[in-house]
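ASSEMBLY PREDICTION REQUEST
Request ID: AP-0331
Submitted by: J.K., bench scientist
Number of chains: two
Total residues: 488
Priority: normal
Notes: Please return the full assembly, not individual chains.
Input sequences:
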Amino acid sequence: MVEKFKRIDGRKLNELRPMTAKVGVVPNADGSAIFSFGNTIAIAAVYGPRLLHPQHMQDSQKAILRVNYDLLSFSVNDRKKPGPNRRSQEISKVTEWALSPVIDLKQFPNTVIDVQIYIIQADAGTRTAGINAASMALAHAGIPMADLVCSVAVGKQDEHIVLDLNKAEEDFEEGEGATDFPVAKLANSDEYTLLQLDGNIPSNRVKEVLAMANSACKDIYEVQKNALKEFVK
Amino acid sequence: MSTLKIMARDNYQEKFDETEEKESSMPVQQEGFDETISKKRKVVIPGEVIVSGEDFLPSDGTKRSGDDIVAMRYGLSEESGMVVKVLPITGAFIPRRNNVVIGRVSNITMNGWVVDIDWANPAFLPIDESPRFINKNEMDQFLAVGDILIAKIWGMNQRGIDLSLRSRGLGKLEGGFMFRVIPARVPRIIGKEGSMISLIKDKTGANIVVGQNGWVWINAETADSAIKARKVIEFIVDNFHQEGLTDKVEDFLAK
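STATUS: Completed
Returned structure:
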């Protein structure tokens, strides 16, 4: 039965959209990267460690990580009102939480590391593309990190677990409807830094989701790794 | 000319100060960037295993994880003897003790100068660390706000960075112009024992000072030689990873 299920764009159930990645795309940033899942494109720029204002936010024990995620107004079909909103603030926060466990912030007390993520084209999976780009940009900025972070969304269409939903799949309404399950994990260990769930999924199938995310993250890591290595050539 | 010789020696000194206990085992080529051992270098990314084995010692930018030496930052890995480290190739300036940096005076206080050295926390040059006696009422005659100086990081603490001018070759830089390069690539501009920078100075006739914070100051008699010096430095920074860079720089200078 699983074999009969056809995805909207004809991919296999566990197939990622084609990925591209490149580092060093923002000349004035200390580190930057672009990452895309199919039609979803994210640019991340890292500035710092640098002076943190306002001063009361400074932490004398460690640096703080400040992430700003922005879905640009031209990135979607119906123009989005520019500026921060509830959704972008939430995604900024979860991205910050997804990235901060790998960064050695203790080395730079009283400073801030700023990460700007801009989605220039959106086709679902923007937070995961943003995390992938930001993790490459942080590495490119020479920030001490324990590992790279890889992120992918696993979804459910009716009762089929599928990988890396696009916008059309996310809007799927037949049967049990669509479920979105973004995951971020460290590249070289099974430690998860982001798990979100929008929709319904039986608890006994979560393992299936994580297994699918794990194998997809291996492919994403290869793309990130190659982009960082190709920068020096 | 003397300035640069000093700087090269200071870089050298800095590497030793960081790892005092390993001093005897550290080869001399730590100082600038030695092209002759480039074969052992490879690009590593955070979390990547560089080498495995009990014999290796983790140094800058690496850590031990079980049997493996793992990179903690993006850069070029280098094995010198048993010591493994990662040389950064990008990123903001991170100050270390004994770095020689170029700064700009941003404020004058009761007992010293506040200096911008391109780092989050301001650096401070106390009046006692100036090379000669300075009257507290006439501090701006020695260094006014906006003046450029070359100084050494003498100490770092919770409050900030302390600078000193008490070494040969340090002091105010007058005339000329200044620009920024990626700080991690400064060792490449200096070269092994200052070989690259003396080559540029010989061929262009410009007076060049390179700070570890990536600020470069150039003063030359003619605009042409100053422009040429800047272009060749930017060429080195863009082609930092290439082998046989000295030859390429010579070709570039001959053009």
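REVIEWER COMMENTS: Residues 19-230 of chain A form a domain with the Ribosomal Protein S5; domain 2 fold (CATH 3.30.230.70).
SIGN-OFF: pending second reviewer
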